[in-house]
Amino acid sequence: MDDDSLLYRVYERRLTKELEDFSLPQHLGVIVDGNRRWAKAAGATTAQGHRAGAEKIVEFLSWCQDLEIPLVTVWMLSTDNLHRPAEELGALYAIIIETIEQIAGAGHRVRLTGNGDLLPAEVQDAIAGIREAAVVDSPLTVNVAIGYGGREEIVDAVRELVRDLGAQGLGPEEIAAAISTDSISEHLYTRGQPDPDLIIRTSGEQRLSGFLLWQSVHSEYWFCETYWPGFRRVDLLRALREFCRRERRFGA
User: Fold this and answer.
1) What is the CATH number of the domain that holds 80?
2) Which positions in this protein are listed as binding substrate (predicted)?
């Protein structure tokens, strides 16, 4: 083991020890950004960048399981990404399917977060088959956000809520009176789950891009310069340490 590797291991153990006295996030969101820029810097293809990013997701989830974080939402494909060239999208879909298969194969519970109807029928069928055959033996639930947009999620939630209220025979004024923050929350893609405590974004971009737009009102954010495929366990530990040091005010 070289000196750099030894120092890294010592630093990692020190960070892990620091976290023992704190409560870690119960819901961690991650915007996996920078696959294409990582590939360009490495002299690799875009597809290779996406594949390296997918492999990092599986590794990242193993770290979360070790740390006993029960819920992780990973943004793999936004609604904006659906406008990318067909060749790139085709490769992305294949990688997403393989990644979901690996996540399910690790025993994690997979929950889709997004508008599945925006995906090709063969992609929907493949994912449905993986989830149906999965054997869950892990305490970790993974929300895989594909075909996801924060504004679209809110619109979908309100539409579904209005349809439900209309089916009850309510009139326009009664429907309007029944719409509330709680009733909208009950129709989000993440219904029944706690809001994210911490959201991580890689690649140096310091914006949410609509990720969990409704749910993140009281979330803490942590941004890092590292492209997603280069994200390390020590980076996660640093993010968690920063989260634990903050005083959360929840809008107060």
Assistant:
1) 3.40.1180.10
2) 34-38, 50, 78-80, 84, 201, 207-209
Identify whether 250 is part of a domain.
no
Cα gap 128→43, rounded to integer Å: 35
Backbone angles phi, psi at 31, to 5 degrees: -95, 105
What is the pLDDT, as a whole number, of residue 189?
A: 97
Catalytic residues: 33, 81
Domain boundaries, position 213 = 23-150+194-243
- Binding site for Mg(2+): which residues? 33, 220
Please tell me the distance from the alpha carbon of residue 198 to that of residue 238, in angstroms, as a whole number: 12
Contact indicator for 231, 5 with CB cutoff of 8 Å: no
Q: What is the DSSP letter of 193?
A: S
Tens-place pLDDT, residues 27-72: 999 999 999 999 999 999 999 999 999 999 999 999 999 999 999 9
Q: What does pTM read for this prediction?
A: 0.94
Binding residues: 33-38, 50, 78-80, 84, 201, 207-209, 220
What is the C-alpha separation between 36 and 40, in angstroms, rounded? 6
Identify which of 143, 92, 88 has the alpha carbon closest to the alpha carbon of residue 114: 143
The answer to whether the beta carbons of residues 224 and 53 sit under 8 Å apart is: no
Which letter does DSSP use for residue 70 in this model?
A: -
Q: Enumerate the known binding-site residues for substrate.
A: 34-38, 50, 78-80, 84, 201, 207-209
